Amino acid sequence: MSECQHVGELPLPEPAPLSDTCRECLAIGSHPVQLRLCLECGHVGCCDSSPHQHATGHFKETGHAVMRSFEPGEDWRWCFVDSLIV
User: Fold this and answer.
1) Which CATH class is domain 5-85?
2) For residues 16 and 37, is the Cβ–Cβ distance under 8 A?
3) What are the backbone dihedrals phi and psi of residue 37, each rounded to the nearest 5 degrees, phi first?
């Protein structure tokens, strides 16, 4: 996997998830597909396969660059800025 400067800027330890699902999807009655955890603040959002793409929306609103899969058995991370699996 590639490295980017944003990984080195992440808080340690990893932030606790703020929820166990995408709250934005729940609020509008949508079903989230594949959850993502923001590694800067703990926001949980749905992925780009979901109709509303709340994880990407969170990045666009906050600039929080790195998220990881919040799915059981997955631990990969994605940097929105560098478009890299990190």
Assistant:
1) alpha beta
2) no
3) -110, 125
